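Our preliminary data section would be incomplete without showing what the modeling component actually yields. Below, a chain of 127 amino acids is followed by its predicted structure, encoded as tokens that our downstream tools consume directly.
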Amino acid sequence: MEPTGVISLEGCTVRPLIDVGVDFCFEIASKNLNYFLKADNIMSMNEWLSCINSASAVIKNTTSTSSAGDDDSSASAESRFSEPTKVGWLQKQGGSNAQYQRRWCVLKGLCLFYFKEQAVRWASRHF
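Predicted structure:
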């Protein structure tokens, strides 16, 4: 199953959004785009923030870009999504659509892949 989209986390900042009128919301800000995501609860939001920040910190402290593991362009879909750091449901605000859409998210390396449907492979996996 191919993702609906992918957010490259390289060079991004991630922060929770407080007092925006939306609970459990956080922002991923890149050089060109800002992504707004919403978790189901505070614990889930904090887990996502921690995992994304940890992935970013590991890459920043790595001297070799080849060990980053985020160049999955030539890999098969099976290997590209194997052993993710975190998976689960988030709501993502659309670019031209202010509504939040529920998306199945897979964090691997410095990529946050999102899908319209839950990938069966990770349905019962807990992180």
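Helices lie at 42-60, 77-80. The longest strand covers residues 100-108. Preliminary results of this kind motivate Aim 1 of the renewal.
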